[in-house]
Amino acid sequence: MKRTLILLFPLLSAGLLSSAQVRYAGTTVDLVVSGTSTLHDWNMKSVKADCSGVFTLNSAGQITSVEDLVFSTPATALKSEHTSMDNNAYKALKTEKNPLITFTVSSVSITPAKGSASTVTCKGKLNLAGSTRDEQVVALCQPNADNTITVTGIEKISMKDFNIDPPTFMLGTIKTGNDITLSFTLLLKRS
Fold it and tell me: Cα–Cα distance between 186 and 111 in angstroms, integer?
């Protein structure tokens, strides 16, 4: 019996080590918010964010679970090429009372993708301009050889769903569209 346990120990250890939970975090993001207006399409970009979560990877390097995932970015980190546009956007986002845009994940489903990548569908609470709504974000998560994870995705949201009046310019002669697109790339490192 003792000999059998000694022989099984390496197998049990290998099984436990091949799917360990590891906390990952990232502080930089390539986030682009884009939309339309009666004059031209527009973009605002941010490279500041805080994101962390606990990821479990199997022995093949694929993500099998994600827990405690949270994301935040300062609303005023979003910048366009025009200061006046930024100021109108910050006013619409109510940044004085709501300085952060946050997403807190409540449930995750994972589907294997090409190679070691996984499609991760996150449902959670998105807080934008002081309004919180249940939203779904789908991202492609690619574990890398250097023990990082690259997270990319594109989501569309409606400003009015968050009680945001689409900004206007030049006394209302230029109006922005209601729908915006969020595109993001985030690099997560073991923390």
Answer: 19
Q: In angstroms, rounded to a whole number, what is the distance separating the alpha carbons of residues 30 and 185? A: 5
pLDDT in tens, 133-151: 999 999 999 999 999 999 9
C-alpha 49/C-alpha 182 separation (Å) is 14
**What's the Cα-to-Cα distance from 116 to each of 51, 63, 72, 160, rounded to whole Å?**
21, 8, 26, 38
Asked whether the CA dihedral 155, 156, 162, 165 is positive or negative, the reply is positive
Cβ atoms 3, 171 nearer than 8 A: no
The CATH architecture annotation of domain 19-190 reads Beta Barrel (2.40)
What single string gives the DSSP state of each residue in 124-143?
EEEEETTEEEEEEEEEEEEE
Distances (CA, A) of 99 to 73, 74, 151, 154, 189: 9, 6, 24, 23, 25
Spans of all domains in the chain: 19-190
pLDDT in tens, 81-103: 989 889 989 999 999 999 999 99
